[in-house]
Amino acid sequence: MDSAPIDLNTATAEQLETLPRIGPVLARRILDWLTANGRFAAVTDLMEVTGIGQKVFDGLRDRVRV
């Protein structure tokens, strides 16, 4: 891994967009989920975001943290 994992609870849209398969739309959905739910308690909560299924999650799991 090239850099430290991104904290899902503090990341900006710009930081999220550096992740594989995360563009502006998914970055906004992640931030919207965070606003609605308060915080990510576990990395697996990311799969509750519309548009993030198992395949996308598998590519992100080692690049994010909570």
From TrEMBL:
GO molecular function (one): DNA binding
Matching Gene3D superfamilies: Photosystem II 12 kDa extrinsic protein (1.10.150.320)
Superkingdom of this protein's organism: Bacteria
Alphabetized SMART domains for the sequence: HhH1
A Pfam family reported for this protein in Swiss-Prot or TrEMBL: HHH_3
Origin species: Leifsonia xyli subsp. xyli
InterPro entries: Endo/Exo/Phosphatase_dom_1, Hlx-hairpin-Hlx_DNA-bd_motif, RuvA_2-like
Location of the Helix-hairpin-helix DNA-binding motif class domain: 14-33, 44-63
SUPFAM superfamilies linked to this entry: RuvA domain 2-like
Any GO BP: DNA repair
Protein name: Helix-hairpin-helix DNA-binding motif class 1 domain-containing protein
GO CC, alphabetical: type II protein secretion system complex
Coiled coil regions in record: none
